[in-house]
Amino acid sequence: MSSLPIRFPADFLWGSATSAYQIEGAAATDGRTPSIWDTFARTPGCVEGGDTGDVACDSYHRVEEDVALLKQMGARVYRFSISWSRVMPEGRGATNPAGIAYYRRLIALLHEAGIAPMVTLYHWDLPQCLHDEGGWLNRQTAHDFAAYANRMFEVFGETVPYWFTINEPWCVSFLSHAMGHHAPGARDLQQALTVAHHTLLAHGLAVKAFRQRQLGGKIGIAPNVDWREPFSQHPDDVAASERGLDWFNRWFLDPLYHGRYPEALQAHYARLGAHVPVQDGDMALISMPTDMLGINFYTGSYAMARHTPVALPEQPDAMAKIDAVLDLATVNVPGFAKTDIGWDIFPEAFYKVLLWLRDEYGNPPVFITENGACDNTGPSDDGQVHDAVRVAYYHRHVIALNRALRSGCDLRGYTAWSLIDNFEWAFGYGKRFGLVHVDFTTLARTPKDSFRWLQRLIADGGCEA
Ligand code: PNW
Q1: pLDDT average, residue stretch 241-256
Q2: Is position 5 within any domain?
Q3: Of the residues 19, 125, 370, 390, which should be mutated to test ligand 1's pocket, given the most ligand atoms within 8 Å of the CB?
Q4: In this structure, is residue 421 part of a structural domain?
Q5: Which residues belong to the active site?
Q6: Distance 171 CA to ligand 1 centre (A)
Q7: 372 Cα nearest atom in ligand 1
């Protein structure tokens, strides 16, 4: 038995995560068709520096090297996503043999290395051809997703033990259709609500298809959660933090676990003319029991009630409406360090949100599908990458995870975001989350200090406090 103070169960699944568009490159190779991210990245002004995922980390051609890195790290699980338009270039119907062969090879390499494959079916790269028919605004896309998922279960069901349907429905809906930061770049509250519902419906339909196949694996969804700590115990601040949690967390988790949307927030939206397009039977599908809940966690903040209510401007855009509904101020507490993407380092929020999930949703089996830090540190003169901020971030969040585990949360594993530096969406290649440094000119991979830190954590089954 190890003498380390912070210890994890021997069967805790440690590993790392990536997503297709962020690492694969080979955007037009072997029959892949464009996704909404190819289009968005090509639209001037959408991605910093005009970066695209055309080449990315070229993992499509360097898959052996990337699996070797995982093996070196000691990973027991690798979470990656399937590019829908690579395996199904028309979004529906025929599959592309070259695309299937790529993932078959990746899965085989993982098994050879003793690493369990964990597949995310949708990490934001909707086939452009489906977007041209309305995309996530079109209810049909939920059915197309389920058909695509069902095909993946058919092809890979025997070799993939862990499946996640949708990555971060909040980002797919609000960040992409209300805030306009991500593809397709819309700014409309009604669109966000429609898309949120259709992504949840897509999830439910895919779970149903998975169950019908009676596969041995596990399936779930991977929402990002946020934490809104009340700025004070003043009832107005506590209420403000609850509204923040409704918006970010409960809007997705309540339908999944309780079969209904949060009522107060729904009423707020309705007053602004925005409605959820629920049809008979939807909520039963969305709340079909799953095997595990994936949680992506990065940061949290303090919520304070505003002293004067937010007034709606005459022609409010989506964000003005959301601001009015939330009616809260986000307070940056002095002394909080930030990562290079500007997000507060707030490990206490990780601990609190895990306890909150335990209490609010009946302690579901949770898998931390993403957690990590943007630290742009590059190679030093010694050729090594001393990413001290990322190491400290992981250390503090692993301690918070351990506290939650000891507090009875049903935590099963953790995949660090991300294995390698990659295409960080609207920020392009300028924001690095990798445990492994990528030189985007030569595509050379160099493990960073954080890689070695995680390697030791996995080998030791724990760490110092
Ligand atoms: C997640 N936000 O994205 C994604 O799942 C990853 O693909 C991404 O690389 C990683 O986190 C780091 O950003 C998010 O604005 C993007 O709250 C934006 C937000 C949250 C998550």
Answers
A1: 97
A2: no
A3: 370
A4: yes
A5: 168, 370
A6: 8
A7: 12
Residue 417 bridge partners (DSSP): 17
String of DSSP letters for 58-75: -TTT-HHHHHHHHHHHT-
Give the dihedral sign, CA 241/244/245/246.
positive
Threshold 0.85, pTM exceeds = yes
Tell me whether residue 3 is in a domain: no
Q: Has residue 123 been placed in a domain?
A: yes
Is the minimum distance from the CB of 417 to ligand 1 under 6 angstroms?
yes
Taking the C-alpha atoms of residue 232 and residue 307, their distance in angstroms, rounded to an integer, is 14
Give CA angle at 104 (155, 36), nearest 5°. Answer: 80
The residue contributing the CA closest to ligand 1 atom 7 is 19
Q: What is the CATH number of the domain that holds 152?
A: 3.20.20.80
Atom in ligand 1 nearest the alpha carbon of residue 418 = 9
Supply the DSSP symbol for 125.
Answer: -
421 lines ligand 1 (CB under 6 A): no
Number of separate helices (H) and strands (E) present in the chain: 17, 15
Q: How many whole angstroms separate alpha carbon 323 and alpha carbon 227? A: 17
Q: How far is the CA of 283 from the centre of ligand 1 (A)?
A: 27
The answer to which of 225-229, 309-313, 384-388, 450-454 has the lowest mean pLDDT is 309-313
Mean pLDDT of 381-410: 98
Instruction: Give residue 390's domain range.
Output: 10-464
For ligand 1, atom 8, name the residue with the nearest CA.
424
Residues 396/407, Cβ–Cβ less than 8 Å: no
Please give the Cα distance from 282 to 261 (Å, whole number).
12
How many independent structural domains does the chain possess?
Answer: 1
Question: Could you give the dihedral angle defined by the CA atoms of residues 135, 141, 142 and 148, in that order, rounded to the nearest 10 degrees?
Answer: -120
pLDDT tens, position by position, 401-445: 999 999 999 999 999 999 999 999 999 999 999 999 999 999 999
- Residue spans of alpha helices (H) in 113-188: 128-131, 140-156, 169-170
In degrees, rounded to 5, the angle at the alpha carbon of residue 100 between the alpha carbons of residues 96 and 105 is 150
- CA 339 to ligand 1 centroid distance, Å: 13
| C-beta 167 within 6 A of ligand 1 | yes
CA distance 115 to 132: 38
Rounded alpha-carbon distances, angstroms, from residue 94 to 97, 99, 187: 9, 11, 33
Q: What is the pLDDT of residues 63-91, one digit of tens each?
A: 999 999 999 999 999 999 999 999 999 99
297 lines ligand 1 (CB under 6 A): no
- Alpha carbon of 6 to ligand 1 centroid (Å): 28
Question: What's at 317, amino acid-wise?
Answer: D
Please give the distance, rounded to the nearest whole angstrom, from the Cα atom of residue 366 to the centre of ligand 1.
19
